[in-house]
Specification:
Elements lengths: L1 H28 L21 E8 L8 E8 L6 E7 L8 E7 L13 E5 L5 E2 L9 E7 L4 E5 L6
Antiparallel strand pairs: 1-2, 2-3, 3-6, 4-5, 4-7, 7-8
């Protein structure tokens, strides 16, 4: 009985040893190609806007974190602004993104539903929406990895 089982297993492993590489090669050949884009959609494309005029440079904008915030205005279009943020060497937070909120909302633990995503903290320039020029605004630093609000800015006007 044991001899019959050993012979059967030997044949099964011989068949598997031949069929497995063939099935693997057929699977690789049958894969669909990775989709490629010729260009990004306009909403995702990097802005070609040049923000060159420095409006202000503040290190006291955020309450807890020591972040340097610089506001630039567009040299081509009046009323368009962008902000750059730079943290100190000891300011390290994982997957940090920046939100903009109009007005002076009371924010506790979660990002408000009317908050607008500006982009990654490490981006060169984060264009502000046109509504930012109309009144008071607040920036929110949010860590995706920790799922928490890292810091809030003081209300500011452009």
């Amino acid at each position: 009985m044991i001899l019959a089982l050993r012979q059967r297993h030997r044949r099964m492993f011989a068949v598997i040893g031949l069929l497995l590489p063939i099935c693997f090669a057929l699977g690789l050949a049958a894969r669909k190609p990775v989709p490629q884009l010729d260009s990004l959609p306009p909403a995702l494309a990097e802005t070609s806007e040049s923000f060159t005029t420095l409006s202000w440079n503040r290190t006291d904008l955020f309450m807890r974190a020591s972040v340097q915030a610089r506001l630039f205005s567009s040299s081509v279009h009046a009323g368009k602004y962008a902000i750059t943020l730079k943290g100190t060497a000891n300011f390290i937070k994982p997957d940090l993104i920046v939100y903009w909120v109009a007005g002076n909302p009371t924010i506790k633990d979660a990002v408000p539903s009317n908050a607008m995503l500006l982009g990654a903290f490490s981006a060169a320039a984060l264009p502000l929406p046109p509504a930012a020029a109309k009144g008071s605004s607040v920036l929110i630093l949010y860590s995706l990895a920790d799922q928490e609000i890292v810091d809030l800015s003081r209300p500011f006007n452009l």
